[in-house]
Each structure stands twice: as C-alpha cells, then as structure tokens.
Amino acid sequence: MPNRSPLLPLLIALGLWSVAQPASAQAMIPHTLQLNSNQLEQQGLSLAQEAAQLAQFQQYELALSRAQLASQLAPNNSQVWSLLGSLYLQETELDKGIRALERARSLDSKNTAILFALGSAHFQKAQYAKAADYLQAGLKLKPDTAGALFDLGNAYYMLERYQEAIAQYETAVKQDPKFWPAVNNIGLIRYEQGSVDAAIKQWRTAVSMDAKAAEPQLALAVALYNKGDRNQGLVLGEKAVELDSRYGDLKFLKENLWGDRLLTDAKKLLNTPRIQATLARSQPQPTPQQPPQ
Q: N or C: which end of the chain has fewer CB within 10 A?
C-alpha cells in the first residue's frame, strides 16, 4: 500500500453509493415512451447503479460513460455526481472530477465522503492547503476516519507542518491499530529531520504490523545500510523488492512521499549489484516467440 491514499476514494467503497436499483428501470431509455422527470431520474439511478457495479470490476471506461449519462438524467442527485467525480479521479481527469464533486457537495454539503474525495483530488493537484481544508471539514463531521486522518497528515507533511502531520498519523493509528502506512510516514518525517534511530523504530513497528509491507522494509533497509549495517540492509532490501519491485524505482518512492535525504540514501542501496540482480529477477520475463512453422 503506497503511503498516500489511492486516488480513487470510490464512493461505493466508502459506503456512499447505496441507492437501490429501481425494480422497473431499464438500462436504456425507451425511445417510444415520453418519460416524465421522475422516470428520467429513475433511469439515471439505474445507470448509476450499473456504473458502480462496473467500477467494482475495474471496468472504469464503461462505468464512466454510464455515470456521465446518469448525471444528465438525475442532475439533482448528489450520489450520482459523487460517483461521476470519483470515476473521473480514477481516470486522472482531476479537474472534471473536482467539478463533479463540487456539484455533489452543493447538493449534500454534510457528506463526509464527498469532502474526503475533494481532499484527495486537491492533494493530487499538489494543492495541499486546499486538500487540508476539505479533509479538516470532513473530519469535523466524522473524526474517527483513519484514512482521512492519514490523508490530512500527508497534506501537512507536504506543507512542512511536521508536528501536525505526526499528530494526525498517530491519531489514525489509534483509530486503526494495524494502519502501518501512518507509522511508516512518521518514519519518513523523522528521517528527513535527521532522527535516524527514531525513524528505524517506526519502520520496525510498521513491519511488525504487516510483514508483507514492502515499503517500511525497504526504508528500514536503507537506514540500516547507510548506518553501516550493510549485510542486514541488503537482506531486507532484497526482501522488499521481491515483495514489490516498484519500490526499486526512485520515481515511485518520490511519488510515495520519500524525502530527499531518504531518496539519496536509497539510491546507494538500490544501485548495489545484489539489489540490481534481485530487481532483474523480479521483472516479468518476455514470452519466447515461437519459430515460424
């Protein structure tokens, strides 16, 4: 799990999408009937239900087309706009996603899932102060949401409000004692502050929460390797990139909020022949071409 929340806060996953599919609705609008506004809205809700189901199976393009039509047929339904906005975010159409989510918020200003989704979207646009504002607004209404606390911590982290970030991460862990990404990110901050031993402690804790979490294992490997415990660093580094080879990519690490100091030290470990060999083995092998008959 990357140490920022996934871009798609799909509102079906957050429990927002709960409209039952109308029993009499059809997938497409019959051309032979002149439908009234209520019937049109029912058709829109039916299409939105289909879109939500398609999204669950990661068929986002099909889901998006249905959600777009649903928003035209049911323009006053906040859930339809929320679903559309989340699908736009999934497709990294951030501006369209924000506009749809703002429309949803205008229809349902107290819906925390919408506020959290807007916070996520603005974070992706590197608008960290605005992201924090939306996340704070949602947390005032629902303060026990570990994921949103974590996201707010990330926004504060990017704003260099480190103590506030740590406070949010710690609160997230109180809400969810297995939420290792929050513990991991405290380690990221401590390392950038020069508190290497404190960072190591956080990463050891994160690994104890989830032995298959690649990120804290790699961070721990980097810290140990650069402290001089090179053998242990290489052992942990190998295990981390075997678990998830994406963590062998410095760009991926930066996207997951690794700071400059940790990235510089990670480069030393990742460039060692032993880790490079492990990464090479982890890459998918091309399928051999059959000789022509």
A: C
